[in-house]
Amino acid sequence: MKTQQQVLKFSGARKSYGDVVALAGFDLEIAKGELVTLLGPSGCGKTTALRIAAGFEQPDSGTVELNGLDITNQPAHKRDMGMVFQNYSLFPHMNVTENVGFGLKVRGVEPAEREMLATAAIDRVRLNGLGNRYPHQLSGGQQQRVALARALVFEPQVLLLDEPLSALDAKVRADLRDEIRLLQSEVGVATIFVTHDQDEALSISDRICVMRDGHVQQIGTPRDVYLHPANAFVARFVGAMNEIEINVSATSIASIGEEQLDLNVNNAEGPHAKMLLRPDAISICQRGDQNSLNATVIGQHFSGSTTMVRLRLDHHDTVVSALLVSRAVNVVVGEGVGVLLNTHEAIIERGND
Amino acid sequence: MKLNNSWAKILLLIVGAFYTLPMLAMARFSFQKVPVIKLGWSTLLKNWTIGPMIDAVTSARFLEAGWLSLRLAILSVLLSLLILVPTTVYVHVRFMRARAFVELLSILPFVVPPIALVVGISSAMRSTIPSFLSSPFSLVPFYVVIALPFSFRSLDVGLSSIDLKTLVEASRSLGAGWMRTVSSVILPNIKAGVVSASFLTFAVVLGEYTIASLLLKFTLPAYLAEAQGNNPQGTFTVGLLLIVVSALLLGVMNRITRGKSQVVSTIGI
Amino acid sequence: MNITVWSGRGSLSERAPLGVFARLRPWFGILPFAVFVGAFLLWPSFSVFRSALQPVEGSTKPAMLEAISGQYLSSILFSMRMSAITATLGMVIGTLVAIAVVSLDRMKGLRNLMVGYSAVAANLGGIPLAFAFVASLGMQGLYTKMLSVIGINLTDMGFKISDFSGIVIVYLYFQIPLMTLVMLPAVDGLKSTLREAASNLGATSRQYWKNIGIPLLTPSLLGGFLLLFANAFSAYATAYALSSRGSQLVSVQIRFYLQGNTITGKSNLGYALAAWMIIVMIIAMSGYLGLRRVSERWRR
């Protein structure tokens, strides 16, 4: 990955509004063709970072470089980037072809060529023949596709997407998400995708940058971020997590209520720690099996190929969810079973004393 | 779309001054018995009096005109509601297809300026039904017509902003007949629209001069035209009063509709 | 408890295919309203046209044609000039006010205040307004005096509130707020995200205005102009109150022709002027409504 050309680079970008730190020392490099998602809750700084890249905000300190050139103070309209907005931002008085061709028009492309390129772009986003329609005649999903065509037609260096799917229905969202990824990788443009939806992030990104309160929490592939979250926040934000209160002794023995487990994690001594465990790191066995905890099945949620089984631990008032392949599930509600925790994958969050 | 903040503030201050200064001048003239020529720093605070105002509002002519205007306003509001509420409710509940047509009829009054309307009234009715025009209350239907764009729009907006279809279906499925549905379910929910329509009509009637004067009816604006000769100051106070009352009506109406997010266009169109 | 059975044609449920008479039945519901409008608006209006199409005494031409010839044409043109000027000034200033209000959207309550006030001021007119301006800028006006104290003598400059420029100023009092009310939604529609989208696509400030800002505002600007024009054209009371004699405005002229109609014998001319007024209003208002529909479509 490092051998690929770095297109966009943030170095120590900082932005504050009065007392509020919107973005703190942001460092990120994006390679050509790579899709990096900025993921986090509202106020985490992801949109600020995007707008700094676009040129709509100026960082208080730090730089932004495009292909090695410092563009920190370059005005937005001179940066060679295409942006897609949450609410489409199509020009209402222009039809689809004119909207898509606008970026070409301001770059001085002749009308004939403009029309040709615009039509090609429109076909590419599967809106063939709709060139004469106006935005108010199109559905949300169609409008967003026009926005996409408009942003890509002039072959920008960077593609910026600001929560492009948030305003759409669930079904449209899923379809468009995959189309965006497909298009993006076909075109091979460096892309920043901003969202608060971790499903979106996990499914389409090359890398995810998880953010919180202006700070980067972790940058890694979706797999990295999911399987090896850097801290409890990332663990909770990306994917579902079970939380179990434990007390850890000096010898790394964890006590859950009265039962004890051999915890293979150091550095966690103290009471009231929390163990975070993915649902797929929990399995069901017989009562009394080695290293298992006793539990009772209190519910099952069938979703086709997988089933989420909810269990209440007998000696500890905690409910956990175990994600199992449906075929392997043969328990009923009310049954007493044993629960195996794959503590290798656990994250221990220290208690606050 | 941004204008430099300082320019924006300056502009609004100038426009704000343009809006308020005439009213201040009118108030000063009404309440201060100092002719402009003699006005200076020394006389600025002298001779403020409500004497002329008292004279005006207690005068027989004022009371006559005021009483007539009041009755005309109330009757116009009642007639407006009587005709429009059933019509708009009917259209929204049972006959939405006709809404565009009804809306068109409601804005037709805009294309007939009051002066043109009144000469038409004379020409049409003077020969055919002369006795009608001789009554001062003949103004009422015409006032309803003039206020139509405002009153229709208020009721229309009010009805559009509630989920009428669902309310009616719920009411009917619970067993209520049409009359019950209209009175217990629909009307209470369009109170804001009804109030707006009433206030707007009332304000229109109070301020209408053209038709009243050409049909020789003695309403408040006609009083203003007549009385300015003998008691200019008092007459001006009445004028000021009219402005204040209209402003209050529209202001209260704005408050009410804003709360219900039923923004009514006060220009009627 | 009795559950009322859902029934009825033309109700919110499905309708069965209908015969002609049955198809007409729903229209009876709006008959009272239509009859009312017909009787008290359409009948007088038709009457105006009927008289307008008759010749003036001593001529064979229909009065309407006579009204647009020679000396009579001047009052129509005068009114149009007056209306166009107040409409233009009102359009420019009212739009600037709308832009200013939207720019200062961080100031709480400012917008509500302006909208509320504009709603009142746009409907103000007639005699009280004339009074207010006479008290301000008339011969004995408060501000006439104040201005003369600082050296600006309006009377010497030949300014009279009852003159053309005076009437223009008075009309602006309700024209500006009217335009503000028309333009506020349009300026809102110029959302900042459109500006950002344009900028991101490479447009400079000037390119943005030329390709997006001005085209988006134009229908509302033109529509507002037409509305203001119509508003000024049809005004009567204010002009009459300011200068009851010798006013060349059509509205006041109509009164003149019809006042002593049995004596002058030119009453049909008055009707003709009224008829032409209506025609001008129809054109202006249709234009306004058409343009408004365009801009509303764009605002989704």
Produce the secondary structure layout.
The complex is a heterotrimer of chains A (353), B (269) and C (300).
Chain A: E1 6-17, E2 20-31, E3 35-39, H1 46-54, E4 61-66, E5 69-70, E6 81-84, H2 96-106, H3 111-124, H4 140-152, E7 158-162, H5 170-187, E8 190-195, H6 198-204, E9 207-212, E10 215-220, H7 222-227, H8 232-237, E11 242-248, E12 253-256, E13 259-262, E14 270-277, E15 282-285, E16 292-302, E17 306-313, E18 319-325, E19 336-341, E20 347-349
Parallel strand pairs in A: 3-8, 3-9, 6-7, 7-8
Antiparallel strand pairs in A: 1-2, 1-4, 4-5, 9-10, 11-12, 11-14, 12-13, 14-20, 15-19, 16-17, 16-19, 17-18
Helix pairs in contact in A: 2-3, 2-4, 3-4
Chain B: H1 5-31, H2 51-58, H3 60-94, H4 99-107, H5 114-128, H6 130-134, H7 139-161, H8 164-173, H9 178-189, H10 191-207, H11 210-214, H12 220-227, H13 232-259
Chain C: H1 20-24, H2 31-52, H3 63-67, H4 70-103, H5 110-123, H6 126-137, H7 142-149, H8 164-188, H9 192-200, H10 205-233, H11 237-242, H12 250-259, H13 261-264, H14 267-298
Helix pairs in contact in C: 2-14, 4-8, 4-10, 5-8, 8-10, 9-10, 10-14, 12-14
Task: Describe the fold and architecture.
The complex is a heterotrimer of chains A (353), B (269) and C (300). Chain A has 353 residues and is an alpha+beta fold. Chain A contains eight helices and 20 strands. In chain A, the strands form four sheets. In chain A, strands 6-7-8-3-9-10 form a six-stranded mixed beta sheet, sandwiched between helices. In chain A, strands 13-12-11-14-20 form a five-stranded antiparallel beta sheet. The longest helix of chain A has 18 residues, at 170-187. Chain B starts with a helix and ends in a 10-residue tail after the last helix. The longest helix of chain B has 35 residues, at 60-94. Chain B is globular. Chain B is an all-alpha fold. Chain B has helices spanning 5-31, 51-58, 60-94, 99-107, 114-128, 130-134, 139-161, 164-173, 178-189, 191-207, 210-214, 220-227, 232-259. Chain C has 300 residues and is an all-alpha fold. Chain C has a single domain (46-297), classed as MetI-like fold. Chain C is globular and about 70 Å long. In chain C, α2 packs across α14 (267-298), α9 runs antiparallel to α10 and α10 (205-233) packs antiparallel against α14. The chains are: A alpha+beta (353), B mainly alpha (269), C mainly alpha (300). Chains B and C meet through α1, α3, α4, α5 and α7 of B and α2, α4, α5, α6 and α7 of C.
